[in-house]
Amino acid sequence: MSLRYKNLPSSWIEVAIGELCSRPQYGWTSSASVHNTGVRLLRTTDITSCGGIDWEKVPFCSMPPTDTSRYMLHSGDLVISRAGSVGTSHLLSNPPSDIIFASYLIRFRTIIPSLASYLAYFLKSAAYWEQIAQKSSGIALPNINARKLEMISIPIAPLAEQRRIVAKIEELFSELDAGVAALERVKANLKRYRAAVLKAAVEGKLTAEWRKKYPPTEFGEQLLKRILAERQKKWEEDQLKKFAERGKTPPKDWRLKYQPPQPPEATGMPMLPEGWCWATIRQVADVGTGGTPSRSDPRFFKGGTIPWLTSTVVNEPFVTSASEFVTPDAVAASRLRLYPSGTLLVALYGEGRTRGKVTEITFAATVNQAIGALVFPEGPRGLKAYLKLFLTSAYSRMRGSSAGGVQPNLNLGLLSSFCAPIPSFPEQHQIVAEVERRLSVADAVAVEVEHSLKRAASLRQAILKRAFAGKLVAQDPADEPASVLLERIKAERAATMNRPAKAQTPKIRPTANIARPAKNARKLSRKIWLARATIAAYGVNALADQPTFGRVQLQKFLYLAQEHIGLDLQFKFEKQAAGPFDKDIYKIESNAKQQEWFYPTGNRGDATHYHPGPKMQDRLAWAGRMFKKQLPEIDKLIKHLRGMNTHQAELFATIHAVWSELLAAGKTCGVDEIVKGVHAWHESKKRFTSAQIEEHMQWMRERGYVPEGKA
After folding, report:
1. Given 191, 338, 415, 537, which residue has the most CB atoms within 10 angstroms?
2. pLDDT at 125 over 60
3. Nearest to 610 by CA among 624, 628, 597
4. Do 106 and 26 form a contact (C-beta atoms < 8 A)?
5. Each residue's pLDDT tens digit, 332-360
6. Contact 669/661 with Cβ under 8 angstroms?
7. DSSP 3-state assignment of 624?
8. Least confident of 3-17, 245-259, 592-606, 654-668
9. What is the edge-to-edge ordering of all strands in the sheet holding 366-367?
10. 142-161 burial, b for 16+ CB within 10 Å, e for fewer?
């Protein structure tokens, strides 16, 4: 082994981790369960968070091993994650007696128990993480195996010095931990403070004393009447302009066609400060949305110069640039509206926490249908700035008012009817100024807190760097050299390896009642079956840790791998309730179980899940050879499927199939046609609303999943 660490003290030595430990062990392959089976299953996700393990939150093992003692965890065990959060480790200290560890964890035990704490601190150091980065592999799900972990090099101090190093690290880290805990409390308090300031602002509490000192000359109700009158006047001017452009004389009573915005429901509304009134968003702003031009038409995006925004822009207070642009043809064909600078945008739907967020554009732009646009009447800045504060404070309430099933959404009706408290213009200005003053102080504190947390993390690494360079504590010439310690470890390790092995109970693997393929099943070449097994194993390895991943999602992965990415798998997908389905999945499962690539659990027809087997790495190596060119696209697909539940994956694949059929038949592929096709696929598909299907279509367009319509 080439030396990695330079200028170590003369009594130190550089070795591989494997030289200090007994043979590493992979964990037990099983899914987690909320039902008490008497055995808990420690997973990668249980050790990735900072601090200790919350044993009460560790789930039960759905299928405990016959010999639980083989996988039972004990004090001094080191577990290292081999996939997902690759390299993350934890040193066990007095774990509960019913804990075993899962297959994505690898257990290491030091030959000399007192080495465990020293090794555990090294596994937090930058030197360790640099080697993990070099040795881990995989794109969609980076991973590392036990052999590579054994080969990681570590500088070893004399045993007595190790104890001094560990004691010093613990002393310094305890001080750092106290400081970091205080900073985290400040962060949490700042978040609560911001929310409290916004709440007090829109309830009138922030300006209660100001109102006493400066009584309003115009109350909120009067302001609202003026705004409504100005909006009606603007409508009349626009109508007269249209009549003039057409060369027509306005008909009699044409003004009666104006429909004023509906006022809010008065019942059940909270009390407001004197001089304030309730108004709907529609009463004080023009509410609109946008659309998505067809990406298959080159006239709409190629050479575009008009900014076009999606709901991804709402995560910052202001939008200062656009990443996509459309053409005038797209504006005309999709009836897009160019919203002016200063328009507020509200996300009607989107992934994660997007829905309900508000931002402001600093340039004229068009938007897609996932955004609600609020255009305020020209005039004083106060109304828009105040309403932006209100909508920010009402984020949770707005999300709570969403409609829909699988993925609730806002819509223009809900947004338009949302009620806001309206004070006078001068008080709006005062509220905005007071909020900005207070939050600017909070923002400055937050920046300093983040800097302090980064400094603490850097200091922690600096301590570890000095510790494993022999510079944290003084050397003692009387200490036994690390080379002598290593010889003792080698002798003990050899003795351990040469001991007669205990008779082992045969390993009982999860069973699956897999039906054999029918005798008249179509004949496929060995190459195709191998390709199917390999891509299925690759998907299972990457997605098995997802709580909803099972047969339905594996089928959708295989469907999209063939129909979207273009892998030659020769599936013949049929229309089933859960989307595209090929019964050859049962033969793939059966072969995978026999070859120990992965194991299905549950009987045919039940909710089947999968767990990687001990020979999974063989299939992963084959995937790298068979699908080398397509791996980036495969990994991209896996990344997106990881964020979906079963229903979302089902809808994804079904829309793709319907879309492909329409394209192949040369038919129109608009939203209405695809919604109709999805609902006609199977009676159960009618649970997906038109809005959900349209949203998913937009998601597919944005991420490059529009099918090509293979005939």
Report:
1. 537
2. yes
3. 597
4. yes
5. 988 899 999 999 999 987 556 778 899 99
6. no
7. helix
8. 592-606
9. 325-326, 306-309, 366-367
10. bbbbbebbbebbbbbbbbeb
